[in-house]
Specification:
This protein folds into two domains: 5-14 and 241-361, Aspartate Aminotransferase, domain 1; 19-82 and 91-239, Aspartate Aminotransferase, domain 2, CATH 3.40.640.10. Helices cover 40% and strands 12% of the residues. The chain has 13 helices and ten strands. Helix 1 packs antiparallel against helix 9 and helix 10 (241-258) runs parallel beside helix 13. The longest helix is centred in the C-terminal third of the chain and has 28 residues, at 340-367. Belongs to the threonine aldolase family.
């Protein structure tokens, strides 16, 4: 009986799994009632986060979504009105446009601007790290009362992958988030913990966030079992993030070397663990490309697009899972469980599929063969 195909799952770093050390720490974690502030492992995780970010207080929450929601917290969660600004490809946005969109005058017809939020690293810009110089310029606008008509503009950083940014910049997370009133980071993406995020800010801010966490049903009681994995993540997984970055760049370099007329990557701007594979040809959709990468055909098996034959094991077809929606690009995200061998197999599959597309589209252009690439 043939073995199942070999699966390399690069849809997101959210599919990462807790390490053995995390599982052991979870089994032996000291616990208490966190709603009463009495879980020693949660308190240890929050203090570790405070020390890393140099903030006054921290709060362990179930998800990054809740952390960001708590950071916006006005009007008992529901009363926030948002204004979005178009991102540049580097993850920043136009600061002049920001100033034009700020509502800073006491006009009863519009809400007052009170908070500016940035994401770092920027997910849908391909894991881009926001430049420190740009962050400093943003801060100089929001914290200058002469530029804000005397209004107080708070700053929040959605730092789900801020440790990736720190590794790329060779800076501390404290420096990156230094002048932000609040920041959150995710433990369950590239840091491999099973669940949880941490929100940081002033003591007053976190006291209110703790109250609103209860409003949202986020009181988790004996959640030291979860916090224990977070501690291991900070101590053991964070130092390994450069390996994710290196492996991501390996894939980008391989795609770039193909010089495909239908696919490309922005090799010079691969910063962290996220890579966007762009579809140049409008006849190719990201969803069809992702579907093809996840398929194994008899033809590719015949052409040895398989795992290598090690210690007499049967060679297996390669299924590569990537993320796609209605985008003009497919996204891959690396994490701790993706090994160098997985990278080798992923490159083999990507190269084969891109070259297959390139060949078939040439046939379409020359002979008018009606192949459906949508």
């Amino acid at each position: 009986m043939a073995l199942p195909h070999y699966v390399v799952d690069m849809r997101s770093d959210t599919v990462s799994s807790p390490t053995i050390e995390m599982r052991e720490a979870m089994c032996t974690a000291a616990v208490g009632d966190d709603v009463y502030g009495e879980d020693p492992t949660v308190l240890k995780l929050e203090q570790k986060s405070i020390d890393l970010f140099k903030k006054q207080a921290a709060l362990f929450v179930p998800s990054g979504t809740m952390a960001n929601l708590l950071a916006t917290g006005a009007a008992q969660i529901a009363g926030v009105q948002l204004t979005t600004i178009q991102n540049r490809t580097d993850g920043t946005f136009c600061l002049d446009e920001l100033q034009r969109k700020m509502h800073l005058y006491d006009d009863c017809h519009e809400p007052l601007t009170s908070l500016v939020i940035v994401e770092n690293t920027h997910n849908m810009c391909g894991g881009k790290v926001i430049p420190l110089r740009w962050l400093d310029e943003l801060i100089s606008i929001c914290k200058n009362k002469e530029m804000t008509n005397g209004k107080t503009i708070a700053l929040h950083m959605d730092g789900a992958r801020v440790f990736n940014a720190a590794q790329y910049l060779n800076e501390s997370v404290a420096r990156i988030a230094r002048d932000f009133d609040s920041v959150c980071f995710c433990l369950s993406k590239g840091l491999s913990a099973p669940v949880g995020s941490v929100l940081l800010g002033s003591k007053t801010f976190i006291a209110e966030a703790r109250r609103l966490r209860k409003v949202l049903g986020g009181g988790m009681r004996q959640c030291g079992i979860l916090a224990a994995a977070g501690l291991v993540a900070l101590e053991k997984i964070v130092p390994l993030l450069p390996e994710d970055h290196r492996r991501t760049r390996r894939i980008a370099q391989a795609i770039n070397n193909l010089r495909s007329s239908n696919f490309n990557v922005d090799l010079d701007n691969v910063h962290t663990n996220i890579l966007l594979i762009h579809m140049i040809n409008p006849k190719i959709s990201a969803s069809s490309f992702a579907k093809r990468l996840a398929e194994v055909t008899q033809k590719e098996l015949n052409e040895n697009i398989t795992t290598t034959d090690e210690t007499g094991q049967e060679m297996r077809g390669i299924q590569l899972k990537v993320s796609s929606r209605d985008w003009t690009y497919a996204r891959i995200v690396l994490y701790n469980q993706i090994s160098d061998k997985d990278i080798e197999y992923a490159i083999k599959k990507i190269e084969y599929v891109i070259q297959e597309y390139d060949h078939n589209l040439v046939l379409v252009n020359i002979h008018g063969i009606n192949n459906d690439f949508q």
